[in-house]
Amino acid sequence: MITHVPRLGRVLALCLAVTGAVAIAVPAFPALAQSTHEHAHEEGPHGGQIAEVGPYHAEIVLEDGEIRIYVMTHDEPAIPVTASSGDIVVLTGAGSKKIVLTADGDSLVGKPDFEIEEDAKAVIRIKTADGKTHAGKAQIETD
């Protein structure tokens, strides 16, 4: 029986070593997964920023007092996706404000009745032509 104690000690040491290695490696996985779909500063084909909305990219363009969302696939080159409607809820210092988006050619467009703050966080929801609704988070850069 005493002959098995050193073996048990080696097994425990191995288990602790593996567990420690896993504990060290696990925090890296969320960062790795996040970095593969990070689009906060990526510029889209219309000069806007890219956000993930369900299985699609949504390009957010702010100009002339409007917010315009172009929906496209992840393909290279991106293929436009027809969206019939949507909305964007922007978090402000005073709470949240909703902007209704309507179809306008190859994009969705809405007119905020408030000033969108720099780096405002938002939730975008789009309804595609197949009737499905998709949502995603974005950080809106106003410069």
3D structure, described in words:
The chain is an alpha+beta fold and 143 residues long. It folds into 2 domains: 32 residues; 98 residues, Immunoglobulin-like, CATH 2.60.40. It is 22% helix and 43% strand. It is built from 2 helices and 8 strands; from the N terminus they run H-H-E-E-E-E-E-E-E-E. An 8-stranded antiparallel β-sheet has the order 1-2-3-6-5-4-7-8, with no helix packed on it. It is globular, with a radius of gyration of 23 Å. The N terminus is likely disordered.
Question: Which secondary structure elements does this structure contain, and how are they paired or packed?
Answer:
Elements: H1 4-25, H2 28-36, E1 49-53, E2 56-63, E3 66-72, E4 83-92, E5 95-104, E6 107-110, E7 120-128, E8 133-140
Antiparallel strand pairs: 1-2, 2-3, 3-6, 4-5, 4-7, 5-6, 7-8
